[in-house]
Amino acid sequence: MKEKNPWHTPVTIIITVIGVIAIVALVTVAVLQNMPLLQKYKYGIVLDAGSSHTSLYIYEWPAEKDNNTGRVEQKHSCTVDGPGISSYASAPPKAGESLRACMREAEEWVPKKRHHETPLYLGATAGMRLLDMENKVVSDKVFEAVKGALEKSPFSYQGARLLKGQEEGAFGWVTVNYLDDRLKQGLETTGALDLGGASTQISFVSDNYDGSESPSNSVTFRLYGNDYTLYTHSFLCYGKDQAQRIRLAEHTQSGPKIVADPCSHPGYSETKKYSVLYDSPCVSDRKPQGAPETFDHTGTGNFQECQEVVKKVFNFTKCKYSQCSFNGVFQPILQGPFGAFSAYYFVMDFLNLTDTSITLEDVKEKLKLYCATPWSQIVQQHPKTKPKYLAEYCFSGTYILTLLIDGYNFTSVSYSDIRFIKKIKGSDAGWTLGYMLNLTNMIPAEAPDTPPLPYAGYVSIVTIIAVLIFILFLVSVRPLWPHCSKQQQIV
Ligand SMILES: Nc1ncnc2c1ncn2[C@@H]1O[C@H](COP(=O)(O)OP(=O)(O)OP(=O)(O)O)[C@@H](O)[C@H]1O
C-alpha cells in the first residue's frame, strides 16, 4: 500500500505549471520593459573665446532621458593655439582659421551620426568687449570670421555672440551649482568667483539681497522649482592681465626709462614698449606724453610695497549704496561658500595656496617670501612654466588677495569659505556649461516628476505580488482538487 500524494493529480500539476509560467512571464515582462536601454548620448559644443585664449568644450548627456534631464558632463576640451580672437584685430580672417584644429578634434570626439544635431555655440568675453568698445567695425569683422569658420563645420551652428559681463557671471554660478548638484536638490548655493584675463566676476545669493537695491546687479532664475535672486557683477579691466596694465600705468605716469617694480622678483629685467603697455582701452587715456619708446621693467620683490601699489588699482572713495565693493559698485553682504576658478585657481595652485584653511597671515607671509625670491632662482626652479606667467605670479597672487580682501571684503574668517577649483566632477568650472544648459533648456523651471519607485524596487514588488497571487489562487482552488482528503488510498 502506498499513500498517493494529493498534489500529484493532473489538475494540480496543470494549475501549478500554468501558475509558474504566468509568474515567470509577468516578472520577465516587468524586467524587460524597465531595463535601462543601451546608453546613447547627445552632445553640445561651446567655444569660450576669452581675452587670452579660446577653449572648446564638448558636453555629453544621456539621450534617452525625457526633457533632456540627464546629467550633462564634459567629455573633452581643446585649447586653441595662439591668443584670444580679439588679438586678431589686424587680421580678422586668422581668428576663424585659428579655430580649425580644435573643430577637427571635435569632429572626431562627437560620433558622426550625431554631428548634424549637435548644437555649436561661441561666446566671446572681455577681450572682445574691449575690442568692441575700441573699434566696433573691427570687432564685427572678427565675429564674421569666426562665424564663417563655424558655419562650415558639420555641427548645428547656433551663433557666435558677445556675452554681457552679467551673463558671464550668472552662467559661471549656474555651472558651479549644477555640477555640485545643489540646484536639483534645492541646497544652499555656492557663490562663483571668476578671474579672467580682462574681466572678473563675482556672483552669489545673499539673504539680504532681493534685487531692489541696484537692480542692474540682479539676475533671477527659477530652476527645478526653486526661485533664486542672484547678485552678480563683472568688473571690466579687472581681469589679471588688464589689472597688471592699470598697475603699471600708475608706475609709469611720468614716462620713466626704468621702472622699479615691487611686484616683480629681484633680478628680473625686461625691456618693454610703452605702446604695447598702453594698447588697451583700460589704460589708453593715461598714456604719458613724451615718454620714450621703451622702458626697463625691473623687479625689487617687495610684497608689502606691491600690495600698496595694487590697492591703488581700486577706488574706494565713493559709494551711493548701502555698501559697495569698489569703484562705487553695490555689493550685498557676502554669503558663502564660494568657488573661485580660472586665474584664481591657476595662480593659487602654482603658489601652493589653494588650501584656504591656512590663515591669511600665513598666506601673506608665503607670498612675501615668494616675491623676495631672486628671479634666477625662480626660473631655475620652474623650467617648464611659461616665462610670462612666471614673471607675474608675485603680482597675480598679491592682486588676488587684494581683490578678495580689500575689493570684495572677505575677512580672515570668510576667506576660509573659498574653494579654489579647476574642475568639479571632471567638468571645468566656467560659464560655458551654464550657458549651454540655459540655451538648450536643460534645467527645467519646475522639478521633473520622478517615478515613485526605483527600478529595483519596482521589479521586487511585482515579483512578490505575483507570488502572493499565485499562492492565494492555489489556496482558493484547493476544495476543487479531486483527492485532497486525508484518507489513505489503497493502490
Ligand atoms: N597656468 C597658468 N598660470 C598663470 N596664469 C594663467 C595660466 N593659465 C592661464 N592663465 C592666465 O589666467 C588668466 C585667465 O585665464 P582665462 O582663460 O580664464 O581668461 P580669459 O577667458 O582669456 O579672459 P576673460 O574671461 O577676461 O576674457 C589669463 O590671464 C591667462 O593668461
From TrEMBL:
Binding site for ATP: G197, A198, S199, T200, Q201
InterPro entries per record: GDA1_CD39_NTPase
Top EC group: hydrolase
EC number(s) stated in the UniProt entry for this protein: 3.6.1.5
Transmembrane segments: 12-32, 455-477
Active site (UniProt): E168 (proton acceptor)
GO annotation (BP), single: nucleoside diphosphate catabolic process
Membrane topology (UniProt): Multi-pass membrane protein
Highest taxon of source: Eukaryota
Catalysed reaction, written as an equation: CDP + H2O = CMP + phosphate + H(+); CTP + 2 H2O = CMP + 2 phosphate + 2 H(+); UTP + H2O = UDP + phosphate + H(+); ITP + 2 H2O = IMP + 2 phosphate + 2 H(+)
Pfam assignment, any one: GDA1_CD39
Cofactor(s) for this UniProt protein: Mg(2+); Ca(2+)
Keywords: ATP-binding, Calcium, Disulfide bond, Glycoprotein, Hydrolase, Magnesium, Membrane, Nucleotide-binding, Transmembrane, Transmembrane helix
An example Gene Ontology CC term for this record: caveola
GO terms, molecular function: apyrase activity; ATP binding; GDP phosphatase activity; ribonucleoside triphosphate phosphatase activity; UDP phosphatase activity
Subcellular location(s) of the protein: Membrane, Caveola; Membrane
Subunit: Homodimer; disulfide-linked.
Function in brief: Catalyzes the hydrolysis of both di- and triphosphate nucleotides (NDPs and NTPs) and hydrolyze NTPs to nucleotide monophosphates (NMPs) in two distinct successive phosphate-releasing steps, with NDPs as intermediates and participates in the regulation of extracellular levels of nucleotides. By hydrolyzing proinflammatory ATP and platelet-activating ADP to AMP, it blocks platelet aggregation and supports blood flow.
Family indicated by similarity: Belongs to the GDA1/CD39 NTPase family.
Name under which the protein is recorded: Ectonucleoside triphosphate diphosphohydrolase 1
Lineage: Eukaryota, Metazoa, Chordata, Craniata, Vertebrata
Gene name of the record: entpd1
